[in-house]
Amino acid sequence: MINAHVLGTGGYAPKRVLTNQDLAEMVDTTDAWITGRTGIKQRRIAAEGEVTSDMAVIAARHALAMAGTAAEDLDMIIVATVSADMPLPSCAVILQAKLGARRAFAFDVSAACAGSLYGLNIAAQFIKTGQARRVLVIGAELLSRLVDWSDRNTCVLFGDGAGAMVVGPSPGPEAGILSMHLHSDGTAAGILTIRGGGSQYPQSEDVLARKMDKITMNGREIYKFAVRVLPEVILEALEANGLEVTDIDHIVPHQANARIVESVLGRLGIPIEKCWLNLDRYGNTSSASLPISLDEANRAGRLKKGDLIAMMAIGAGMTWGSALMRW
Questions:
Q1: This prediction's pTM
Q2: Is 300 in the same domain as 156?
Q3: What stretch of H or E contains 105?
Q4: Same domain, 36 and 81
Q5: Of 118, 143, 169, the domain-final residue
Q6: N or C: which end of the chain has fewer CB within 10 A?
Q7: What are the catalytic residues?
Q8: What are the tens digits of pLDDT across the range 229-263?
Q9: Which residues contact 276 (CB under 8 A, 6 or more apart)?
Q10: Domain count of the fold of the chain
Q11: Which residue, 145, 169, 193, sits at the end of a domain?
Q12: Are 188 and 312 in the same domain?
């Protein structure tokens, strides 16, 4: 069976920087409070008129250029997002048109912060079975329009951005995605949610007045959930491939909170030096976080041929997963 591999990466973050000091002028908070609880110093905010597919296009073009792939050669486009341009049609088909990827079929995946990992898994299966040769996987989020800017517990966390991966057959049997492991637990759906705007609470003046169209979360419960399941899913991936924690050269996590990342690495016994961290500069960009981090580590020259890379992500649902990849 053909191995799937990431052939090119790309990322994009809007120009506008919103610092903790800026937030302190908007809500009752301080730089020390935000930094101490999250590790975030600043985040990027989309420009007026900029939409999710605009960010996705830029990240996609960077990834396509690295992979030496023309948009016309794409077979498939997957966009992981919870903040698409509009409810219908998908962000992926809008992106397809903007790229000129006429041959590709396109669809969105909704798994919140774990979305790009879910999308990568789908792409890998199409590559392995020979149904596709080039797949574009995007994580793109414009969360600044989904947060309540009067709620200091959520508005300090999130930022806008997009990350991209071009997936294709591995250049050799020794490289590529070794395995991926996905999980969900709908009984925990209530700890991170946007309740309004769907069939249960259709958009209305009441929904808007009650801010049900904005993100709400129970940070304490998310932390407890994440630090329990993320170490488990990394160990699940290692066991599936007969590998040990010490075999990991790099770990690329979804970055929601520095405390979560540090706690997970501590439980696994992985030195922080093996982790690419950019949470302080971007905040939590949800599905964009993991591919942006992979792209930065890649372009910085951190990822060497033969290195073992572990990826992990967790998001609303709850949804979570891991992947092991030989670079």
A1: 0.96
A2: no
A3: strand 105-109
A4: yes
A5: 169
A6: N
A7: 113, 254, 284
A8: 999 999 999 999 999 999 999 999 999 999 999 99
A9: 250, 251, 252, 293, 294, 296, 297, 302
A10: 2
A11: 169
A12: yes
